[in-house]
Design a protein that fits this description.
This protein has 162 residues and is mostly beta strands. It is built from one helix and ten strands; from the N terminus they run αββββββββββ.
Length: 162
C-alpha cells in the first residue's frame, strides 16, 4: 500500500504543478476515450503544459477515470490513465505519448500498466470540439512482461479563452 501512496502523491504534484507552465488558448480539455489507455473507455482531463509556437507543437498532461464491475473474487476495478503527450501540427496533429494506467481492485489489489500513444488528432485552435484516433499498445508486468496491441478513439471539448 506504500507504493500506492507514492503514486497518488506523484499524480497530485503533476496535476497541480502543471498550471505554472500553461499559456495561451485552450489550456484545458475534457474528452471521452473509447477503448484506449483505460481498457474499454474513460473520461479524461487534459492540460497544456508548454506550447511552442515556432514549431507548432505542445506538451500536454492527461489524466482520467474508468471502471468496471468484477466478479465476487476481484470486485470492482477502478482505472486511472495518466500520460504525457507531445502534439505536433496545426489542425491535423501527430500525437506521441507515454504514461501509466493504475488499476485498483476494491478488494485490495493494484497494478500498473505502461501505455504508449501514437495517434492522429483533429483539433482546430478556434473550435471547441476535437477528435482523436490512437494506437495505444499496453505493456503489463503483473506476472511477466506482456505486450498487447490496442487502440482508441476520442471525442472531446476544449475550453477556449475569449
Amino acid at each position: 500500500m506504500r507504493g500506492f501512496a507514492y503514486i497518488v502523491l506523484f499524480f497530485l504534484i503533476s496535476l497541480l504543478g502543471s498550471s505554472i507552465f500553461a499559456q495561451g488558448k485552450s489550456e484545458h480539455r475534457l474528452f471521452f476515450e473509447g477503448l484506449g489507455n483505460a481498457g474499454f473507455g474513460s473520461i479524461n482531463y487534459e492540460k497544456r503544459l508548454v506550447k511552442l509556437d515556432r514549431t507548432k507543437s505542445e506538451f500536454v498532461f492527461r489524466t482520467g477515470l474508468s471502471g468496471f464491475p468484477g466478479d465476487v473474487n476481484t470486485g470492482t476495478t477502478l482505472l486511472f490513465p495518466n500520460s504525457f503527450n507531445f502534439l505536433y501540427g496545426n489542425a491535423h496533429k501527430l500525437e506521441l505519448g507515454i504514461g501509466q494506467t493504475l488499476s485498483i481492485r476494491l478488494k485490495g489489489a493494484f497494478f500498473i500498466r505502461t501505455v504508449f500513444n501514437l495517434g492522429y488528432r483533429f483539433q482546430k485552435s478556434d473550435k471547441r470540439m476535437f477528435y482523436r484516433l490512437t494506437y495505444t499498445p499496453l505493456m503489463s508486468n503483473v506476472w511477466d512482461i506482456q505486450f498487447q496491441h490496442w487502440g482508441g478513439f476520442s471525442i472531446g471539448y476544449q475550453f477556449l479563452k475569449e
